[in-house]
């Protein structure tokens, strides 16, 4: 469990810097191109580590596993991250970061439906505190949010939560880095097929007529220069590769609900990083909201640790009686 919280910390730091870095390079790339290339390259970087992990666990990938990775890749790369990247283009990075952090609400629901994970009273109380904090940060009474940006971000959050929960079983079997690697590579291949279809003249014309220019004639491996290469490497290698691997490792070591703490700490850390690196002002409502989120997150950690001690004590008692 302690190792799980270390992975949560790593994923939180990397994910909290994601919107800032994506915003700085988004003008240089088509959003679909950026999504495809960062997940494809991120997956390739993880490939040698994944192969080593498979050998150490003496596991092999069968047809059913590949089908699962194809589903996970489609859910994450093709669906969730396209919604996410488009949302970053339509509205402020900080707003996307905060709203996307609502996905633990959906994780809790999906984990209950698909994994039969219990919903404890402290989970619900923590969620209430954290949702109140998020609402205070968004401050809907005074901030005009793009309806398109809001919808895209919510869709990204819902589908990412589903991706995480559906990947829990595979992560328990293969490990987080394997699931991340293969779902990224296969999801990127699925996206590449869609990109190539978008190059067909008739399809391209149709997409453009529906104002879906971002999906038509998507360029590949262009836009890189000395001015953005360091930011690109950070996004592709660290945020996309290491960040998602850490998230799944956290889920492997703890639970889907506990790993989702990443997205409660994220809206706390993201504004701080934005203030440090791009001088974004932190208003009073954001500070108050952050305090609510921190309270909810700390409450969850304390309750989970207490619950874990009780379970271990019960196991010890059962073993001693046998």
TrEMBL record:
The lineage of its organism: Bacteria, Bacillati, Bacillota, Clostridia, Peptostreptococcales. Keywords: Cell membrane, Membrane, Transmembrane, Transmembrane helix. The chain crosses the membrane at residues 5-25, 31-49, 69-87, 93-115, 124-142, 148-166, 178-200, 229-247, 259-278, 284-303. Gene3D superfamilies: 1.10.3730.20. Belongs to the EamA transporter family. It is a multi-pass membrane protein. It holds the Pfam family EamA. This is EamA domain-containing protein. Residues 3-138, 148-301 form the EamA domain. It comes from the Bacteria. It comes from Terrisporobacter mayombei. Its main location: membrane. It is found in: Cell membrane. The keyword Manganese does not apply. PANTHER family: INNER MEMBRANE TRANSPORTER (PTHR32322), S-ADENOSYLMETHIONINE_S-ADENOSYLHOMOCYSTEINE TRANSPORTER (PTHR32322:SF18).
């Amino acid at each position: 469990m302690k190792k799980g919280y270390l992975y949560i910390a790593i994923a939180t730091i990397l994910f909290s810097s994601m919107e800032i870095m994506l915003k700085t390079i988004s003008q240089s790339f088509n959003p679909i191109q950026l999504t495809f290339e960062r997940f494809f390259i991120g997956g390739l970087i993880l490939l040698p580590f994944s192969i080593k992990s498979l050998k150490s666990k003496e596991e092999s990938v069968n047809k059913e596993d590949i089908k699962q990775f194809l589903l996970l890749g489609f859910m994450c790369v093709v669906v969730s991250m396209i919604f996410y990247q488009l949302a970053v283009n339509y509205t402020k990075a900080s707003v996307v970061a905060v709203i996307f952090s609502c996905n633990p609400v959906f994780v809790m629901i999906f984990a209950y439906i698909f994994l039969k994970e219990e919903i404890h009273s402290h989970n619900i109380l923590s969620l209430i505190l954290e949702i109140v904090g998020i609402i205070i940060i968004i401050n809907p009474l005074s901030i005009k949010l793009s309806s398109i940006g809001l919808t895209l971000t919510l869709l990204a959050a819902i589908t990412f939560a589903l991706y995480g929960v559906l990947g829990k079983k595979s992560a328990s079997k293969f490990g987080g880095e394997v699931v991340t690697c293969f779902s990224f590579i296969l999801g990127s291949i699925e996206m590449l097929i869609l990109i190539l279809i978008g190059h067909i003249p008739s399809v391209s014309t149709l997409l453009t007529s529906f104002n879906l220019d971002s999906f038509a004639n998507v360029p590949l491996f262009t836009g890189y220069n000395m001015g953005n290469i360091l930011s690109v490497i950070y996004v592709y290698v660290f945020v996309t590769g290491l960040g998602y691997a850490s998230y799944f490792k956290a889920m492997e070591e703890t639970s889907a609900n506990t790993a989702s703490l990443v997205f409660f700490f994220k809206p706390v850390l993201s504004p701080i990083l934005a203030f440090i690196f791009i001088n974004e002002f932190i208003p009073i409502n954001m500070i108050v909201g952050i305090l609510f989120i921190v309270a909810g997150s700390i409450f969850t950690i304390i309750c989970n640790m207490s619950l874990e001690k009780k379970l271990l004590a019960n196991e010890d008692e059962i073993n001693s009686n046998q």
